[in-house]
Amino acid sequence: MEKLLIALTFACSVLALLFALFTARKVLKFSEGTDLMKKISASICKGANAYLKRQYKIVVVFFAVLFVILGVMAFLGLLTPYVPFAFITGGFFSALSGFIGMKIATSSNARTANACREGLNKGLRVAFSAGSVMGFTVVGLGLLDISIWFFLLKFAFKLPNEAITSAMLTFGMGASSMALFARVGGGIFTKAADVGADLVGKVEAGIPEDDPRNPAVIADNVGDNVGDVAGMGADLYESYVGSVISACALGVAALHSITAMALPLILAAVGVICSILGTFLVRTKEGASQKQLLGALSRGTNFSAVLIAIISFPLVYFVLGKANWTVYFAILAGLISGVLIGQSTEYFTSDSYKPTRNLAATSETGTATIIIGGLSVGMLSTLIPIVIISVCILAAYFVSGGGTSASMGLYGIALAAVGMLSTLGITLATDAYGPVADNAGGIAEMAGLESSVRERTDALDSLGNTTAATGKGFAIGSAALTALALMASYIDKIKSIDGGAAKIANLNITNPTVLIGLFIGACLPFVFAALTMNSVGRAAQSVVKEVRRQFKEIAGLMDGKAEADYASCVDLCTKSSLHEMILPTVVAVIVPIIVGLILGCTGVVGMLAGATASGFLMAVFMSNSGGAWDNAKKYIESGVHGGKGSENHKAAVVGDTVGDPFKDTSGPSINILIKLLSMVSIVFAAVIVNYSLL
Amino acid sequence: MEKLLIALTFACSVLALLFALFTARKVLKFSEGTDLMKKISASICKGANAYLKRQYKIVVVFFAVLFVILGVMAFLGLLTPYVPFAFITGGFFSALSGFIGMKIATSSNARTANACREGLNKGLRVAFSAGSVMGFTVVGLGLLDISIWFFLLKFAFKLPNEAITSAMLTFGMGASSMALFARVGGGIFTKAADVGADLVGKVEAGIPEDDPRNPAVIADNVGDNVGDVAGMGADLYESYVGSVISACALGVAALHSITAMALPLILAAVGVICSILGTFLVRTKEGASQKQLLGALSRGTNFSAVLIAIISFPLVYFVLGKANWTVYFAILAGLISGVLIGQSTEYFTSDSYKPTRNLAATSETGTATIIIGGLSVGMLSTLIPIVIISVCILAAYFVSGGGTSASMGLYGIALAAVGMLSTLGITLATDAYGPVADNAGGIAEMAGLESSVRERTDALDSLGNTTAATGKGFAIGSAALTALALMASYIDKIKSIDGGAAKIANLNITNPTVLIGLFIGACLPFVFAALTMNSVGRAAQSVVKEVRRQFKEIAGLMDGKAEADYASCVDLCTKSSLHEMILPTVVAVIVPIIVGLILGCTGVVGMLAGATASGFLMAVFMSNSGGAWDNAKKYIESGVHGGKGSENHKAAVVGDTVGDPFKDTSGPSINILIKLLSMVSIVFAAVIVNYSLL
Hints:
Two copies of one chain form a homodimer.
Chain A: H1 2-28, H2 35-75, H3 83-118, H4 120-156, H5 161-169, H6 171-205, H7 217-255, H8 258-279, H9 290-320, H10 327-349, H11 354-362, H12 367-380, H13 383-399, H14 406-421, H15 424-446, H16 451-496, H17 500-503, H18 512-553, H19 566-637, H20 647-683, H21 685-691
Helix pairs in contact in A: 1-4, 1-8, 2-3, 2-7, 2-19, 3-4, 3-6, 3-7, 3-15, 3-16, 4-5, 4-7, 4-8, 4-15, 5-7, 6-7, 6-18, 6-19, 6-20, 7-8, 7-14, 7-15, 7-16, 7-19, 7-20, 8-9, 8-15, 9-10, 9-16, 10-13, 10-14, 10-16, 11-12, 11-19, 12-19, 12-20, 13-14, 14-16, 15-16, 16-19, ...
């Protein structure tokens, strides 16, 4: 059974990677267009490479330090000896996911722009293919890492199943820390460049977006790649692997059988096949409307989702047997919830609906009212997702038999997360193609291509905003479910340690250590959001000053007679974002250890619950406020409320600028934060049991 | 013993009320100044009265409906028959506190302005005396209500102690709902008027604050009275009464003796005396600097706090005896935490410290960066208060013997809240004098008094911002502690109902109903903040349009040749704020019942914990962001970063405008929300036990 399982997982991981490779080769066959386009694309690529290279240098130091710490702990018997290595591989594969995604994205932006010269359908195919490379790389590397470790631990080190899942959980910590670095660093880079470019270029100098005269324009496009692509790749690698492993661990704990561990792996493997099939449905006819474009993408993702929903029914029945087949409904609940949260995101942030349209109208009374309006749209938008996720948790828990066995219920919650992420290959493809289209638009503008090209890339880009909303639904929903599953795994882990069971006996919510843990945990997303926003603010201010300086000092820049010094802006963004990413990540790693040492294991559980609840809310709030401001601005640009250049538009641009760090730095980072907290807690569990104060 | 206790409480309530009366008469002896000043003050007074009259009309309907519902429930045996009446008196006294405070405030604004013509010291005395009337009215009415009901239930109806505290808890629901109406309605009024006046007057038309040409100027001053005074009075009445009663209830549950119930009452009674003594120390010499003024106020509050800290030591020892005297340290922890949270608030919001100064500097790069900066200052500022309150909870729990008896620990937490609020008489006085000074400044401006008068009222007003920070520390800190005490009371209440103990047995944080309750509870402050901000936004927009209309249509208004139609703005604010206050309050009352009916008692406990944690964070975040923006603007007005009228100043004004609903509507309302949720849950406990789904 184990061999078959490893073989299946390994085979599907190879399948995903081969599909990614095949798609990448297909993309690279397209032409990059004119020399100017090649040159621009090369500058973007160069900037992104330089950033990643320097980022990895810093990350390597962090990983080396933690490797030594974990090594010492393993030497002292507080950890199994595999943990330091699992930690490293998790980080490595997460970084690799981001790196490959970024590589293909920077290689496809000019190609997409060029393809758009021939037609919308061709542009869509190039951009979507680039997204697919990223999606299937993430999925493939995730399954590869899991199957290799599974193989090693089972057959080389001959561990029992409980010990296998327990060891594998820890490579989640490597993946999570890497993801947090990538998301925070990339998020700061992209938004510092974006805010800097917008504030001085659009607002002060009054030149259009992506205008080549803007010194921050290349940095802005580099940012799309290192933040929205590399950051997202590392992020979702971590979500994917985290949800699968925690489901395996909880399955073993609930049923003490290899079959329970097998189910999440099989689901993930089958999900790869469904996703690949789905990609073939993404195509559209020439001159397709916005709606038809969206239809093409939705057809692919919906097909994959329905397929996995159908296939997993016999699958669950076959794997778990008659006694436990009802966990199927937990998987279904996860799938449906992901879609519903995405739809709620779309409702609150798309300009086809009332909230964003009303928000656009508040610009009539000035900047302050559109800021207040956007904040309240975001806060209000937390209600529906929280109800959806609550119903999902309740349903997943009870259909899986949580009423009689709590551990079965928790297994159900973890499977809901796996269900939600099972078609990640294609959902990530529809998500990752957005930044490629965005870059393509930038290149079209800078290379002075005819306006019809820009119109086509804009159509693709705007579509990307909608699919990104769906993607965010999956990312946030799965983060919450996975965090809860990890919390349950943490409790199991503590119980498995000598003397741990007594220390975690009183998890009553009125126990003051639980309660205080809850308070502190709930505070972390606020502090984390503040730190990352401050970072963006500081980095953006330095960009603003640099751009202003160039406008002032480079003679003839505004008339297009002299070229801006793009490299200095890229360099500035790189330096400040890398400098700024360290503190938030270190905080996220250290706080759970400090809380554990002071409040003990019960305090840690409280902290995890508090951070998950408030983190989910803050992530939804910040993403949706940001999305609503962004689209309210675009809605005004479409000609209502005075249109482009009006006072109302200026107010909306301020809203959009405030929303930038909300939706692309702080919000998504919080998703990772809540999982990293659990991962760190799990890794340091033995330390806490042995040395905690309370 | 009981008789002595009731007599003492009653005597101190009468003492507080007499002191308030005596102080009021003293204030009313001062002259109101010139005819113009009288006229302006009369318009403000008229507007405030008209608002309150209409507000009470709506509130009466709400109370009547709930009275009938509670009556039916009592008839069905789900409640004791006293509850509907207790509910009504709680609401009545809360409303009365606000009304009296508002009356004295509107009668003292012109008197303060006039006193400032003679000197700063005289101005301070008038304004502070007006604040004292409010402070001691709140305290006096609170103790009066408690002692009357205690007397009735004990001697007229001869209930046992457990039943007395249980019945008295329910008049907290009346006080809380009234407080929420007052805070939300008043908060919307004041900020709609303020935002409207600022946006059109200051930003668009470029006329100074409180300029008589601004049509919203009277409405703005009315707002200070109905929001900052009447709203705050009702709010703190509720905090005070809620903390005392919940401590009584938990004391009876922990020690089953009248002495445990006596302690909070005696503490409150002694606190009245300490506060009165403290007020005599508030005076300053002529020409006092800002620092000396603050010193005068601090001397009063510090003296009262130290006095009660000293006196309560023998008091606790005498009342509870050798076995339990250590709860003294819980009281001390509460007192100290209140002061520390206030200092943290001051650090983050005063322009004497780095956060606000740095925030002012972000205005250099435009509106967007000052908005991002203010949001992150607020979010970051949650960390220290959460650590303080966590340490306070832990300390209060364990010094009171929570390690061996959980109910003693919870009694300790409740006593910490009582300790924090014991000197409310004087802390509220230093808080409530702010709006009086603010109004006085407005009158000085509108009546065209010499600029030295305005300088003096400005000095008083700016001082008010600092003391308000301390006041907020107490309000937020005590709200969190009281909410936790009420949560504990709720659990006791459920256990006392037939079949309740089994329903609340599993309060483990991993129980999905607890967890989902937690998620939903944590979401409520976000939704509530959104609703109230939206309300302010909508109301402000209508004011903006009306002010713009008047500027356009009333010929000669800008040249001072024609008078603005102040009444129409007041009327508009009244109408829209009363309309807008209904939904948030109804939501706060209905949600805990719905959650209870679906998720059962364990879900309610989860909801209360989640709402307390996230409500505390949101309240601190929103208050401090708002405060920091306000003071960053004032700091710029003092001449740095370009000073008044510069682009930077304009950016700061937008920040301040966004901060207005943050700090004066949504933030403070959340304090009440978290307690109202518990109160409603307690009142409907029997319904939930009998009819819940899960």
